[in-house]
Amino acid sequence: MAPAGPFVATHFGAFRCVTRGGRLIALEPHRSDKAPNRLADGYIDALYHADRPTMPLVRREWLQHGPKASRETRGKGPFDMVPWDHALALVANEFDRVRQMHGNEAVYAGSYGWASAGRFHHAQSQLKRFLNLAGGSTSSVNSYSYGAGGVIVPHILGSDYRASYSACSTFDGVADHTRLWLLFGGLAGKNSQIEAGGIGSHDVPEWLARIAAARVECVSVSPDKSDTPDILGAKTLQIRPGTDTALILSMATEIILADRADMAFLDRYTVGFAEVRAYLTGAQDETIKGADWAAPICGIDPQDIRDLALKACSTRTMISVAWSVQRARFGEQPLWAAITLAAVLGQIGLPGGGFSFGHGSVGTLGLPYTGYRGPAVPQGINPVDAFIPVAALTELLERPGGTLAYNGETLHLPDIRLIWWAGGNPFHHHHDLNRLRRAWHHPETVIVQENSANALVQHADIVLPVTFPMERNDIGISPRDRFVVANRKACQPHGQARDDFAILADLAELLGFRDSFTANRSELQWIQWIYEGHREHAPHLPPFDRLWNEIGVYEAPAASQWRSRVLLSEFRGDPVRARLKTPSGKIELYSKVIEAFSYDDCPAHASWLEPEEGTLEARSSQYPLQLLSNQPAHRLHSQLDQGRTANAAKRGGLEVVRMSPQDARQRGIADGDTLCVFNARGSLLCSASLSQTIRPGVVQIATGGWFQPQSDGVDAGGNPNSVTSSIGSSRLSWGSAANTCWVDVKRGSRI
């Protein structure tokens, strides 16, 4: 028998859709989900929101004048509704004009991740397949989440470690073998509630309970005591944000000075320790990088640093670094420093020891995994060589014809005439939004495929309305999750919204390559093709017809369900046979490759570098508070900000800024006051929330509030990226450096 109601695969879990009169009215978590995430309820509000674009929209001035329309009024002018055939003709003609007159590198395919948990209707994949078949486009690499790590870690561990989750041991090793768990950046429970490829059950809380029951000692290094779940009973070192590198290096120094470094491990498995030791012990610059050096930088008692260092080398220690730590100026360094400390301890490759990046940063990192991997929508080959690291978007738009130093290369910045975006929201993800908004005026045309009336839609020329996951068929399947979800359409698209695949297929027909784009497959045939590709690697998966028509949600059997992992265990077992894909075949504590780049913002070994913004001398200056802009607990990035959970977390319609009572008293601020948070880059409105858990001198605002700049420039939407800097972490990676940001706050709605 068919299921009573179809399931939908979301970033928040697998849910059964309950409809009435063709409308979605409820989402029921799958029975196997151990800790359901109710954020998905926001879909019910978003589906039928009054501002949802439900038919194509064209900015009135662009509709009248085409690409010759004023760009300065983009983001301000009214839109007109047009029929689908008219909208598609406008898009096809404009795309063809740009590629014929300026070449395909003048098109920027700005799509980004998290658009869909379903593997077929993944907007970025669909758009890039379309554009690659049509001659290509300028593209982006890396991510905002772990941009620094995605570039630095392959230099240290080899090219196999480009993905963050490939540098993460599983939780069972922590529970069974770790005695001291160091959590740099904490392990925020909200982050493990989501997963890009969908998630069938939220298992991290159960694993943390098992770790707590094993009496693993946990130390959280974070400015915010609430960054670690209470169940772990963690001691918190309330570090000054952005100084983790200094703390980690000082611990390594104390271990070396105590003659406790594992020289046998360092000699056999690493290169460059002599240079690192010279730096740490002061032989290089006469400054010993020990506890007394780090204490005033980090704001931590030097004896606490010494005690932690000696404890780490006296027991099995796991060093975990959250993704958030590297989203700062010189964000490569804490990751390199963590590997260096782990190498000094000599526990890399041992169960429960070494280092891991990203434990708990999303719902499946750290979990034992299935490991089967099949095809996704093939994007093909991009004929255009031009690309940027994703966090350099503003530089791309501001400096046409310029260059950008990146990872040893000099990138050419094309003159972008057309931005085409499907999935993701740059007016959430990107930094210094006022600068981006000015740079956004450069292209002649902006095309957006979107299902919500966010700031990206407001800053578009042509808007093509698209569906939500429950308005289409799809498949939720991932090698990092043991569940497979048959995502069957639960309700008809609202208004005239259409799938990205259907939109692009019709555009491909207008441009003469529909058969190539669709591969002569229908939506359901594509879904089955993806599933069968996974089934080739996992024969326990049921036949597609049975999954689709009977089961709905399939859970892998226990025999294939758990695959534990100890990071670098094979390398430790045989460093010759399992040599790393680095120049030396070993862990590179000192990189001659990076040395040859001659970047003063990324030296050849892990180093402490003082950020230009917020130096020790400037911390009592015009902007004395450091802003942390972490991921929200009440929405996913900016998704579902119009939903019930996000709205319930606001106060009087405003986003919340958390600050210490001490900082509030100094400014005459009471809990619930409306505040203006500001610096030279911009300002935003928030409601004050006084918190005993956050370090004095630090304020915190969750990302994702919809950017709503007012006529005076103040962002009423409370997006912290109104004030963050768009400077990259370094020239090596150009990763996000959002957490290196200093502000002040003032009562009232104006500076």
Task: Write a structural description.
- This protein has 751 residues and is of the alpha/beta class.
- It has three domains: 273 residues, 3-Layer(aba) Sandwich (Rossmann fold), CATH 3.40.50; 239 residues, 3-Layer(aba) Sandwich (Dimethylsulfoxide Reductase, domain 2); 132 residues, Barwin-like endoglucanases, CATH 2.40.40.
- The protein has 26 helices and 29 strands.
- The strands form eight sheets. A six-stranded mixed beta sheet has the order 5-4-19-18-17-6.
- β18, α17 and β19 form a beta-alpha-beta unit.
Which tags fit this structure?
single chain, 751 residues, alpha/beta, Rossmann fold, Dimethylsulfoxide Reductase, domain 2, Barwin-like endoglucanases, 3 domains, six-stranded mixed sheet, six-stranded mixed beta barrel, 26 helices, 29 strands, 17% strand
Helical segment tally?
A: 26
The CA-CA distance between the termini, in Å, is: 63 Å
Radius of gyration: 25 Å
Structural category is alpha/beta
Major sheet description = 6 strands, mixed
Low-confidence stretches: none
How is the largest sheet built, in terms of strand order? 5-4-19-18-17-6
How many DSSP-defined strands?
29
The CATH C-level class name of the largest domain: Alpha Beta
Mean pLDDT: 94
Short summary:
With 751 residues, the protein is of the alpha/beta class. Helix 13 links the parallel strand 12 and strand 13.
